[in-house]
């Protein structure tokens, strides 16, 4: 498994994995018509924009196995005054799950966050109905800070939780693995 910072040329494969991940995880949560017809186009636009001219506070790391995208993580440093750096996306291809890829991506991302935003906390938002993601985040020491209601890209209102860690270092300690 190889890990590197994402480049603009990665936007299509990142968008495709992001879309497939949403189609699987959000079936029955988001409108099926959105997942079937619009999610890929939405994610292509997001990743073209994010990887074309990324802000200093954005960091995207990808994992590749034999030239194929196995996973990625995207974070924005100092995104929120109260909670700190946000893990905005973490997705791992189904065939690579359970092999430590997500933990390695998080550990590498926390190295970056610890360098540039060491005094910030770390947080993420996860849909309340995404039981697999919640189980994973709780297994790596996440603390449920609050429940909020938001609007999904398909226009449906969804409940989500905000999970936090006190620092990049605290999260990185939970994710040290060799892949």
TrEMBL record:
* Protein origin, superkingdom: Bacteria
Q: Which InterPro entries match?
A: Acyl_CoA_acyltransferase, GNAT_dom, MshD_Acetyltransferase
Spell out the protein name for this chain: GNAT family N-acetyltransferase
- Could you list this entry's UniProt keywords, alphabetically sorted: Acyltransferase, Transferase
User: Which Pfam family would be a valid example here?
Assistant: Acetyltransf_1
This protein's record includes keyword Acyltransferase = yes
Per its record, what are the GO molecular function terms? acyltransferase activity
In this chain the N-acetyltransferase domain maps to 1-177
SUPFAM superfamilies annotated for this entry? Answer: Acyl-CoA N-acyltransferases (Nat)
Q: Does this UniProt record's set of keywords contain Nucleotidyltransferase?
A: no
Q: What is its EC number?
A: 2.3.-.-
Enzyme type, top EC level: transferase
Q: Per the UniProt entry, what species is this protein from, by scientific name?
A: Vibrio barjaei
Q: Which PROSITE patterns match?
A: GNAT
